Amino acid sequence: MSDQKQDDAPQPIGELTEPFIAQVLLHRLRRERGTVNPQTEARDREVRATAEASALERYKRLALPDDVHPAFMESIFYAIHREADRQRMLPGRTNPGPVHPNMQDSEEDVRYKLRANLKALTRLIAKTYDAQYGKNATATQMIMEFEANRIRELTARAFRTAPGGSACDLGCATGRLTRNLCEQFRDVIGVDISPEMIEQAKRLTSERDIRPRFVVQDLDEGLDQPEDSASLIVMSMGTASDICEIKRLLQSIHRVLKKGGRFFLSFQNADALLYDAQLPWRPPLEASYSERYNYLVVRDHAIHTRRYRQQEIETFIQAAGLTPDRWDSFPTIASILPNEALAGDMLREAIFRADEHLSQEMRGIYTCVSGHK
Known about the structure:
This protein has 373 residues and is α/β, with parallel strands linked by helices. Helices cover 42% and strands 17% of the residues. It has helices spanning 18-33, 38-43, 45-63, 70-89, 107-125, 129-132, 138-158, 176-181, 195-206, 246-256, 310-319, 345-357; strands at 166-170, 187-192, 213-216, 230-235, 257-269, 287-290, 295-298, 301-304, 307-308, 323-330, 366-372. The strands form two sheets. Strands 1, 2, 3, 4, 5, 9, 10 and 11 form an eight-stranded mixed β-sheet that branches. Strand 4 (230-235), helix 10 (246-256) and strand 5 (257-269) form a beta-alpha-beta unit.
């Protein structure tokens, strides 16, 4: 592989530590991702054939350091390329669902349909949300764990000498994170657009010795909480991308936060490696993204979302008077592997650690930003 090494390839650091392995893996994925470009394929079949042959040769060389037979490696990746090609040749299909946008819809109509779908979806899944969401989507489970860890680190660091105060969980669903915040804050509020989710959150909370408050509220209309009342505001699991009026909401967050108060926001990442890949399998995520319109498909329901780049998010946040302190993106590798490849606690933990090391590369599904007022 030494004759194939590119100038920007990660350099050895004395031993094969996890950070180095993670960097090498991302470098290889980027390199192989750029080998076959769908637009180039459509324009020039000869270029495509040359690129595929070149890619397969590189796959064979990747096997050598690990004593894997080159022909075996070549056959695996050849099958992947062929299946990806076959999927791209299938006639276009619309995801089934109760209501889907079409080319004739106005922006207002699209927003109305997607909002109706969101409410219909929450009615459908509220009672089973805690038990089922992410159950068969390993990458989604990993996102939940990663964000919970980051929020825990943020609160431990920022409120170590001054525990208590008030916290708001925006888009709280059934209150999983809201209940966790009760360990650190004496006054916790969970906000969600869905009456069914809020009702389920209240039911689950009544079984425990904690008393957060839950409120039905449309975040596109801003926050109803008093000015300078919250020490912490969180919005996890990409919820910030579900908000149509994100600039208005960020201004509202600034109003509600106390001076020195902290925030944690999670967005869909437009630069995620997943969106550059041509995968022949379904990613291990609960939702899939539609390229035609800004929406996610969750259990056949299309709901509004928008992917953002880091610079866009930073511009919005600073315009609202907030200051970002830390950026992360997660997961990168887990999002492009088939769910079966993440089976088993040992492998899952290894991929989780690798994605933690890659979180500063900003190529994961979600962009997480924390900061202060």
